[in-house]
Specification:
- With 211 residues, the protein is mainly α.
- Helices cover 66% and strands 4% of the residues.
- The protein has one domain.
- It contains nine helices and two strands; from the N terminus they run ααββααααααα.
- The protein is elongated, with a radius of gyration of 18 Å.
- The two termini are 30 Å apart.
């Protein structure tokens, strides 16, 4: 029954993320910076001027340590949510040389996890409504627990990325106090995003919600 607390925690994080995003994330920053510009500033401030920032395109090959690819909504976005996501990605990139897996590899692995979660949900539903396929439900729930444990293992790095991103954004002096307060709230919840992936993955993949 270990999957019961796993599902409870994951759902709680997911709902909390939605609430914080709707409360703070959609506000545009008053200075007019885009996610690309913020990422560029963080890389330059961290001595990583050689790393390029570009927009991620499906199927494009991406170098291991010389390129930071941001989704279009983050690259061009001016909302506080886009800026905090760009800041976290840039911070991860500055630490890539000291990590076992590069940020790009980790991002691809989580894309695989998201697709796996979609399949796991299908197995759970099939096993729940079709008794002969009950074993599918057990398999799906096992996948939930496994991916949740992977997310737990990555929490220290997520906390570090959010904390460092906040200090850099604060020290840039681009944002007013109320904006910094919203940025801090967003960064706090973004470090927990992976824990809510069990519910977040199907919702975002099926375009039911945008976070």
């Amino acid at each position: 029954m270990v999957w019961v607390p796993v599902l409870f925690i994951s759902l709680s994080v997911f709902l909390f993320e939605i609430w914080i995003f709707r409360k703070n994330g959609k506000f545009p920053n008053r200075s007019g910076f885009t996610g690309c510009e913020i990422a560029r500033q963080i890389l330059d401030a961290s001595g990583c001027s050689q790393i390029m920032v570009d927009m991620a395109l499906a199927g494009d090959p991406r170098p291991h340590l010389k390129q930071l690819s941001l989704e279009r909504a983050v690259y061009e976005g001016k909302t506080l949510s886009a800026l905090t996501q760009a800041a976290r990605e840039a911070v991860r990139m500055t630490r890539a040389s000291s990590q076992v897996l590069s940020p790009d590899v980790r991002k691809r692995l989580w894309e695989i996890c998201s697709n796996t979660l979609l399949a796991a949900w299908l197995f759970v539903l099939l096993g729940s409504f079709l008794p002969p396929l009950a074993v599918f439900k057990f398999f799906g729930l096992t996948v939930f627990v496994f991916i949740f444990l992977i997310a737990m293992a990555g929490l220290p790095a997520e906390f570090e990325a959010s904390e460092h991103a906040y200090f850099l954004l604060r020290d840039f002096n681009h944002f007013l106090p109320d904006e910094l307060s919203r940025i801090k709230s967003l960064l706090k919840v973004q470090r927990l995003t992976r824990l809510g992936q069990i519910f977040r993955a199907p919702m975002t993949r099926l375009r039911c919600i945008e976070i």
